Every structure is written in structure tokens, then in C-alpha cells.
UniProtKB/TrEMBL annotation, chain A:
This is 2-oxoglutarate ferredoxin oxidoreductase subunit alpha. Keywords: Oxidoreductase. The lineage of its organism: Bacteria, Pseudomonadati, Pseudomonadota, Alphaproteobacteria, Kordiimonadales. Gene3D superfamilies: 3.40.50.920, 3.40.50.970, Pyruvate-ferredoxin oxidoreductase, PFOR, domain III. One of its GO terms (biological process) is response to oxidative stress. PANTHER family: 2-OXOGLUTARATE OXIDOREDUCTASE SUBUNIT KORA (PTHR32154:SF20), PYRUVATE-FLAVODOXIN OXIDOREDUCTASE-RELATED (PTHR32154). NCBIfam families: OAFO_sf (TIGR03710). Residues 260-471 form the Pyruvate flavodoxin/ferredoxin oxidoreductase pyrimidine binding domain. Residues 518-584 form the Pyruvate:ferredoxin oxidoreductase core domain. Residues 20-208 form the Pyruvate/ketoisovalerate oxidoreductase catalytic domain. It comes from the Bacteria.
Automatic annotation (TrEMBL), chain B:
GO terms for molecular function: oxidoreductase activity, acting on the aldehyde or oxo group of donors, iron-sulfur protein as acceptor; thiamine pyrophosphate binding. Gene3D superfamilies: 3.40.50.970. GO terms for biological process: cellular respiration; small molecule metabolic process. It comes from the Bacteria. It comes from Kordiimonas lacus. This is 2-oxoglutarate ferredoxin oxidoreductase subunit beta. Pfam families: TPP_enzyme_C (PF02775). Residues 57-204 form the Thiamine pyrophosphate enzyme TPP-binding domain. Keywords: Oxidoreductase.
Length: 616, 341
């Protein structure tokens, strides 16, 4: 029976279930199918820190949200239009965010006394007034999944594991998405377990068929979401970790250097270690060190040896790397340090996102120890930002901190694959032996960049000794001379400050270059700020959006630009860090707007803050 | 061995001596070790450009400044980690790590453990003076119990750590011990350490003249040495003593090594153990020898069992085996993509 198909501009779907229900897989497969259909999209995997939290508990709920549409999608969506709840705990945690009038799909098969109790329900919410504001589809998905796979020879437990595919099948039907990409993925994933592959495909088909044949269509609509008009090219769905790893590899080729990654497992940075570890065909060397300190030290050792050392971690690990960062600053060796930020302090919220390591990046070392800090804004943007971090590191002989976050690391978006041949190379030339009897100094500098040259062990005539002790400006030998230390400290600052002349001027993302209010952001808040400013401007408000990639040093026009607005509002997922740096640098009245709940900003929240600031 | 590692002309001690003024205290044991290294490297036939000294922090860690080779004076305890990264960038380099009992066994204990476990092809020299020198005399992990120091005015209580046992426990495959003043013994140990493919660990008993003078004198003084040092050689009987009449025997009842006098109590030379440097259990017992009265301290190569391939060969081999099979572009375009026209 053909059902009505309603055309939507965009929709937000949230899959929520127990940690063991396979919600991340369901979400990522829905994403693939959606991307292949040509919609723009943004995803938000939202999972607990526990690997297998006790079954049925609220803290064990894992969710995956996707916002997709026939227009440019910049955020994961403020509130889901559709919530799929695989158990009472998932319902309990997520229902409050479902848009009133939204569609709720629940697996009634899991709503037994025990699960309700674990989720903290005194009474079964199904059929209660709590559901009145939503369209509800109550299905015993567990039972229907068992039915669908009963001839596949799986045990009850294995059979029940297929219920995420049943649900996915139903959702693919509802949004008119294709099953083929999922089927081919399942067949590949379970190539060695044909029974399991067949059962999952059967469950997927059964869910889809249920939508097709059941009476659902009498009450519920199917949706069609069109394709977005993107620039011509080849597209792929990428996560931030993937794009960042590719960027590092691309930079190695552009610089003509081998890449050596030293890393230690930490959430949410590990996917970068994993991705680079699979890139042996591209010549990437990875080293899982004994700890965070060894990870950066190995990277520094590799750079000393003439490769480009890279280390990747999250806030707590970056804290441990602090002393070694000072060594790289003092010896002027290039190292790229990637921080996938998470909620802090201490262990904090390992799987939740925050951008609260800006102070740590800019200020967090002993001594006067400046280094360049740059931030990426979205999964696809990680590619370009990683290349830029590597370029600055080798050109200026300095460690560079690249800030990303847990949201960017795990989120996916369609990305136009870049033309690698069109990227600007920055080939590194190592130091050469001096002519004649002249003594070799490792601290001969480029007058323009102030970067020292880079000698490579194994080369005759450039033997030298360096270390973390203050060194003579010229010879590089140990020096405790007071004037020399002043000079070297000034030089290290001047070198980093000089990078402002080598980076693009700050642009205005939306709006006029002067005006009443500038909303200034950095990092993964790009999407919600952009949408909020767009909505505010559509309402006729005088507001512009400035998004900063270069945090230290700032672009050289930033001060003039910011002083062209009456007010500055800085939304951040921290307690106000960029705000402080802006105030310090420019003595401007930058106002903070902060959120540290571990969840990304909602568009509405920023829009409300804009209205409050403009008193409208 | 690559082309670089053989010098075009014969080098001398002068070639390996940097122009930097040595700043250790007069009479420090480090001078003797430095001289021995500068003297022995030309004998090994290595080049300056292919040699790198990496150190941490402490008196011993100033070593690289005085070698006219590549050198990296890093941060406290981290030299093994930095050296590991260096070897991953260029496995052909000859990398020496210079560390001390505080640097290597306290703040850097974790890195030393893992460099030894991984068997990274490094030559690790641990100068053991049983004290913190550069920070002015606090007790170290190898200090004897009861050591009075600024931080332990009433005597230290921590049991001391045996570096040889630590190295063996970490999985080291080359372990040796020598003494700063043993100018005849040390070169051979350095050469063996250098020639060994894998992590070579050398404990050097070193005297700190200012903060722990004579800490080893009961073992190293000329008069005491023959009775307190057992110089082991692979395939040779473990005989020592001024009279060369003492030997090491394995006592089955106590399951340990014991000192016997040849010709007394019915013991003959046949009862004396022959050193087998590939025997890990023997190395364990030799490393601990000297803890009891009357026992000598074992010197020389206590253990050497080279692995089939080095760590860097294994790590880089995985990359080399497939490198270039696909490009970055291939990788980026693999999987599910779509065209927008």
C-alpha cells in the first residue's frame, strides 16, 4: 500500500537505547544511507563513558542524533523531530528533548517491570498522559525481530541483537532511504559469519517491510527529504578524526617529511591514533607509548631526527605533556600537538564535549613559553586545519597546538573531497654544513620568520648539542647570561607573534564588518552560532558572526575588526576563556555566554542570548 | 650498518671531544667515563655524524655537551622515550642514552622499563652513584637504607633498588656492569653494548665525590677490588680473589650462588660455575650477587641474548612492507562516495 509522502526541508532523528543495543551503528548506517541520498547532514554520537554500563540503566543510555536536510545543515538540531527509544531508560533520558508533536517510536517489548524500575518509572509511561503531546508508535520490536530471524539458527540473545537493524529498516522506510548501502555493509562486516549477516539483513528487511505493509501509513506519514545543492565534486561522509588524520598525512607529503605519531589511548582522542595506525600504506609510523609523556617525547625525538613528530591526546594527557612542550619550545623543534577536548577538570566528562582547554593551550606551561594555537570548527575543516598546524610547525620550528573536541572528533558530515594536487607544498630543507672552518651553530635563524634551521642527525658537518637549558642566542651553547635570557625570551615571543603576518586576515562569516553586535566564536560552536546569527539577521537584528581559527597569535586585523562593533558576545562551551584572552589582548568588553553541560549549544540558546544582548 | 657508519679516515679521541668546558666537580667519576667513551668510539669505527647522545637531567645528563657528535639534553627521566622516537625517525643512527639512578630509576623508571621491554636498539648507560647530585645530595632509589641526606636527616628507610634486577625484570636482553675507574674493563663493555642489536643496559658504578664519596669504595678500591669484584666472561669459570682461589658455585640446597674456596672443603675447580651469558636465570643471580657478606659484585656482560630482529625493524617493517601500495588519494576516495554534478 502506498502511503502519503510529505516533503520536508530537514529533520532531526535521535536513536536512543542501551549501550549494548548498537545505537551508534544504527545511527552511522542511517547517516551513510542519508549521505548517499544527497542530503546535507550533521551527526552527534552521544554515548556514556562506561563500555558496558549495567543493562537498562539511565547512565547506560547511548544515543545518536542526526540532522539532515535539503539545505545546508550546520548543527545537529536543537530538538529531535523523531525519537526512537529502545528501552525505558532511553525514553526517560531523551523524551524531554523531543519536539512537541514529534514522533516517538518505542520498543514495548522492553517495557517490563524490571526495566521500568531501573529507569526510575513507577508506572509504565506507555499510554500515559505523558505521551499525549506526541505521535506515538508502540511496537514490540523485540518480538518482531525474533520472529524475523527465527529461521536463521541464532540463539535468543544473538537474535535480539538484530533489533537495531529492524528499527533501522523501519526508519529507512519512513524517510525513503535506501537499504542497499546498509546491506552491503552488513555483508562485508559479517563476511566470516554468514548466519549473522543474513539475520541482520532479514531484520532490516522486516523492519522496512513492516513500514511498507502495516497500517502505519494510515496514521503516520512517510517523509521525503530532498538533495542539497552542493558544489560539484566527489563527496564523502567524514568524521573529524578521519579528516584530521588525512590532513596530517597530506601535510607530511607537502613537507616532504615522514610522519611519526606518538600517542597514548585517551577518550575522545584515540580515533586519531587508530586512523593513523591504519595508514601504513601511506607511510605513517605510529607508536603507542607507555604514557602521555613518552608519547610527546617520542614525537620530539622523531622531529629531532628529521621526521615530523605528532602527538594526539585530550586535556588530561595534554597536561602531562606540558614539560615536554616546554622542551620543544626551548629547543625550537616542530611538533604538532592535537587536543581533542573533553569535559573537565580532571577526568571530568570523558565522552562529552567541551572547549575548556583554551587557557591550557595558550597559557598552560611553566616559564614564558609561547606557541601557536589554532582551532578547527567542523569535521571537514579538520583536514585543512591539520595541514596548517603542520605548516606552521615546520616553517617556524615550534610546537603547534591544534584544538579540536570530542564532538568534532566523532561527528560526521558530508565533505567535498579536496584536490590534493592543488595543495601548496611547503618542502623542508635541512641545515647544511658550514663552509670552511666555520663552527656550525644549530641556532642560525631565518631573519624573516626568526625560525632556526633544522639540522638532521646522520648529516656530516651539522653535529651539534641542544637541550632545555637556556642557550646562547648565536652559538646555541649553554648560557646563563642575564642579557641573553632576556633576548631569547623576547625572541621566542617575537617568533610566535610574527606568525600573525603569515596567516589570513580574520573574516566576518556573516553580516557587516562593523555594527551593533559581533558574536565571536571558535571551534565546534560554529554551527549553532552561524544558525542563530542567520535567524537573528532574518529578524532584522544588526548582528555579525566572527569565527576565529587562529587563537594564538590572533589575525593581525582582529583588534580593529572587533572595535568596529558596539558589543561583543562570546559563546563558549567553557566558563569564558576566549573572552578572557580577547579582553587581555585588546581591552575590549567581550561578554561571555557559557554552557558546560557536555552538550553542544542549541541554536535557540544563542539566539536568546543575542536578543538579550540587544535588549529586543 | 649503513654507509654513514664507517668513517672515511681513522678518527681519534680529539674528534669526539667537543669544545665545551667540562663542568663536573673536580674528581667526579663522570670524567673517567667521558674520557673512556671519547677514547673508545674511534676504536668502534663509528662516525661522529651517525652518533647521538641523548640524556635526561642530572649530573650524568650533561654528558652529551662534551661529545662532539649529535647530542640532545632533554628533560628529567624522558631520554629513553625521546631516543625511541629518534630511532623510529632514523633507525640507522647509533643512539646512546646517558642517565643516572635518579633520572633513570625514579622519575624516568617507566620509560626505562618500556625501552628495555621493547628492546629498542639503544645503548643505555646508567651512572649509579646512589645519590642525587645536581639537586644537592638527596637520597636516590639506589641509596642504601639509612642514608643520611638533606631529605632524610635521620636516615632513609626505603629499600634500595638493584638496577640489574630492574633491567632483567623489564625484559632487557643485554645487561652489563662496570666501574667508572675501570679504564681497562669499561671499553670492552661499551663495545659489546654498541654491537648488540637491541636495548643494551650498562650499569656504571660511579663515585660522587661531593655528596656520596666512597659509596662504592668497598668494591672498587684497588685493595678491595680483587676480593669484591667477579669479572665474568662468557665461557669462563667464575673465579676471583687476589689468590684466584675463590669461585662461584651453585648450591642446590639453598637454590642460590655461593662463594667457595677452591681446595677447601673438598671443592675443586670443577665445582665452579662457567659463565653463560645467554642464561637469564644465572644473570638474575649474578645481578644480585654482592648483597651478602663475602660475596663479590659481578662485573662484565651478565646477560646477552639478541632477538631475531630489532624493535625498529619490526615497527618500520610493518610500514615498509606495504608503503606505497595505496596513496592518500586512494584512501580518501575508498568506500562510499557520491558525485554532485
Amino acid at each position: 500500500m502506498a502511503s502519503d509522502v510529505q516533503v520536508l526541508e530537514s529533520a532531526v532523528v535521535r536513536f536512543a537505547g542501551d549501550s549494548g543495543d548498537g545505537m551508534q551503528l544504527t545511527g552511522s548506517q542511517f547517516t551513510t544511507s542519508t549521505a548517499l541520498s544527497g542530503s546535507d547532514l550533521s551527526t552527534f554520537p552521544d554515548f556514556p563513558a562506561e563500555i558496558r554500563a549495567p543493562v537498562g540503566t539511565t547512565f547506560g543510555v547511548s544515543a545518536f542524533q542526526i540532522n539532515f536536510g535539503a539545505k545546508a545543515i550546520k548543527t545537529v538540531g536543537d530538538r529531535p523531530d523523531v525519537l526512537v527509544a529502545m528501552n525505558p531508560a532511553a525514553l526517560k533520558v531523551n523524551l524531554m528533548n523531543l519536539r512537541p508533536g514529534g514522533l516517538l517510536v518505542v520498543d514495548t517489548g522492553t517495557f517490563n517491570k524490571r526495566n521500568l524500575q531501573k529507569a526510575g518509572y513507577e508506572e509504565n509511561p506507555i499510554g500515559s498522559h505523558e505521551f499525549d503531546t506526541y505521535q506515538v508508535i508502540e511496537l514490540d520490536i523485540s518480538k518482531m525481530t525474533l520472529e524475523a530471524v527465527k529461521d536463521m539458527g541464532l540463539g535468543n540473545k544473538e537474535a535480539l541483537r538484530c533489533k537495531n537493524m529492524w528499527t533501522l529498516g523501519l526508519m529507512l522506510w519512513m524517510f525513503s532511504r535506501k537499504r542497499e548501502p546498509v546491506i552491503s555493509w552488513l555483508e562485508k562486516k559479517f563476511a566470516k559469519l554468514p548466519d549473522v549477516a543474513a539475520a541482520n539483513v532479514a531484520a532490516l528487511n522486516a523492519g522496512h517491510a513492516f513500514g511498507e505493509t502495516a497500517e502505519l501509513s494510515a496514521t503516520f506519514k512517510r517523509y521525503q527529504i530532498g538533495t542539497v545543492h552542493s558544489e560539484p565534486g566527489t563527496y564523502k561522509t567524514v568524521t573529524g578524526s578521519q579528516a584530521l588524520s588525512w590532513g596530517i598525512a597530506a601535510a607530511g607529503e607537502l613537507a616532504g617529511l615522514d610522519i611519526v605519531l606518538g600517542s597514548y589511548p585517551i577518550t575522545p582522542a584515540s580515533p586519531i591514533l587508530h586512523a593513523l595506525s591504519t595508514m601504513k600504506e601511506q607511510g605513517i609510523v605510529t607508536f603507542q607509548a607507555e604514557d602521555e609523556i613518552a608519547a610527546i617525547c617520542a614525537a620530539i625525538g622523531a622531529s629531532y631526527g628529521g621526521a615530523l613528530g605528532v602527538t594526539s591526546s585530550s586535556g588530561p594527557g595534554i597536561a602531562l605533556k606540558g614539560e615536554a612542550l616546554g622542551l620543544a619550545i626551548s629547543t625550537e623543534l616542530p611538533v604538532v600537538v592535537i587536543n581533542s577536548q573533553r569535559g573537565g577538570p580532571s577526568t571530568g566528562l570523558p565522552t562529552k564535549t567541551e572547549q575548556s582547554d583554551l587557557y591550557q593551550a595558550v597559557y598552560g606551561r611553566n616559564g614564558d613559553a609561547p606557541l601557536p594555537v589554532i582551532a578547527t570548527r567542523s569535521p571537514g575543516d579538520c583536514f585543512e586545519t591539520a595541514i596548517e598546524a603542520c605548516r606552521l610547525a615546520v616553517k617556524y620550528m615550534t610546537p603547534v597546538m591544534l584544538l579540536t573536541d570530542g564532538f568534532i572528533a566523532n561527528a560526521a558530515e558530508p565533505w567535498k573531497l579536496p584536490d590534493l594536487d592543488a595543495l601548496e607544498p611547503f618542502k623542508v630543507e635541512f641545515a647544511k654544513a658550514p663552509e670552511g672552518e666555520e663552527e656550525f651553530s644549530p641556532f642560525v635563524r631565518n631573519e624573516q620568520t626568526l625560525a632556526r634551521h633544522w639540522p638532521k642527525p646522520g648529516v656530516s658537518g651539522t653535529e651539534h648539542r641542544i637541550g632545555g637549558i637556556e642557550k646562547d642566542y648565536k652559538s646555541g651553547h649553554i648560557s646563563y647570561d642575564p642579557e641573553n635570557h632576556q633576548k631569547m625570551t623576547d625572541l621566542r615571543h617575537a617568533k610566535v607573534e610574527g606568525i600573525a603576518n603569515d596567516i589570513p586576515l580574520q573574516d566576518v562569516d556573516q553580516g557587516e564588518e562593523t555594527g551593533t553586535l559581533a558574536v565571536v566564536g571558535w571551534g565546534s560552536t560554529y554551527g549553532p552560532i552561524s544558525e542563530a546569527v542567520k535567524a537573528a539577521r532574518a529578524d532584522g537584528l544588526n548582528v555579525s558572526h566572527i569565527h576565529i581559527r587562529y587563537i594564538s597569535p590572533f589575525p593581525r586585523n582582529l583588534e580593529t575588526l572587533l572595535k568596529g562593533y558596539d558589543k561583543i558576545l562570546v559563546p563558549e562551551m567553557n566558563a569564558g576563556q576566549l573572552k578572557t584572552v580577547l579582553r587581555d589582548k585588546y581591552l575590549i568588553d567581550a561578554k561571555p555566554f557559557n554552557k558546560v553541560s557536555g552538550q553542544p549549544f542549541k541554536i535557540q540558546e544563542i539566539l536568546d542570548a543575542i536578543r538579550a544582548e540587544l535588549a529586543v | 650498518m649503513n654507509e654513514l657508519s664507517t668513517p672515511k679516515e681513522k678518527l681519534t679521541i680529539k674528534d669526539f671531544t667537543s669544545d665545551q668546558e667540562v663542568r663536573w666537580c673536580p674528581g667526579c667519576g663522570d670524567y673517567a667515563i667521558l674520557k673512556c667513551m671519547q677514547r673508545t668510539l674511534p676504536e668502534m669505527g663509528v662516525t661522529r655524524e651517525n652518533t647521538v647522545f641523548v640524556s635526561g637531567i642530572g649530573c650524568s645528563s650533561r654528558f652529551p655537551y662534551y661529545m662532539n657528535t649529535y647530542g640532545f639534553h632533554t628533560i628529567h627521566g624522558r631520554a629513553p622515550a625521546i631516543a625511541t622516537g629518534l630511532k623510529l625517525a632514523n633507525p640507522d643512527l647509533d643512539v646512546w642514552v646517558v642517565t643516572g639512578d635518579g633520572d633513570g630509576l625514579s622519575i624516568g623508571g617507566n620509560h626505562l622499563l618500556h625501552a628495555l621491554r621493547r628492546d629498542v636498539d639503544l645503548n643505555i648507560l646508567l651512572f649509579n652513584n646512589k645519590i642525587y647530585g645536581l639537586t644537592k645530595g638527596q637520597y636516590s632509589p639506589t641509596s642504601d637504607v639509612g642514608t643520611r641526606s638533606p631529605s632524610t636527616p635521620t636516615g632513609s628507610v626505603d629499600p634500595s633498588l638493584n638496577p640489574i634486577s630492574f633491567a632483567l625484570g623489564s625484559g632487557a636482553r643485554f645487561i652489563a656492569r662496570t666501574v667508572d675507574t675501570a679504564q681497562k674493563h669499561m671499553p670492552g663493555v661499551f663495545t659489546r653494548a654498541h654491537d648488540f642489536k637491541g636495548a643494551s643496559f650498562v650499569e656504571i658504578l660511579q663515585n660522587c665525590i661531593v655528596y656520596n664519596d666512597s659509596a662504592w669504595s668497598d668494591i672498587t678500591e684497588k685493595k678491595a677490588a680483587p676480593e669484591r669484584q667477579l669479572l665474568v666472561e662468557h665461557g669462563e669459570k667464575m673465579i676471583f680473589g687476589a689468590e684466584r682461589n675463590k669461585g662461584i658455585r651453585f648450591n642446590l640446597d639453598t637454590f642460590s650462588l655461593e662463594v667457595v674456596v677452591i681446595g677447601e672443603n673438598g671443592f675443586t675447580e670443577d665445582d665452579i660455575l662457567t659463565h653463560d651469558e645467554t642464561n637469564r636465570r644465572m644473570a638474575q643471580m649474578l645481578g644480585e650477587l654482592g648483597a651478602n657478606p663475602g660475596e663479590p659484585v659481578a662485573m662484565g656482560v651478565l646477560y646477552a641474548q639478541q632477538a631475531d630482529h630489532s624493535y625498529t625493524d619490526a615497527v618500520l617493517g610493518q610500514v615498509e612492507a606495504v608503503k606505497g601500495k595505496s596513496t592518500l588519494k586512494d584512501l580518501m576516495y575508498a568506500g562510499q562516495t557520491w558525485e554532485v554534478k
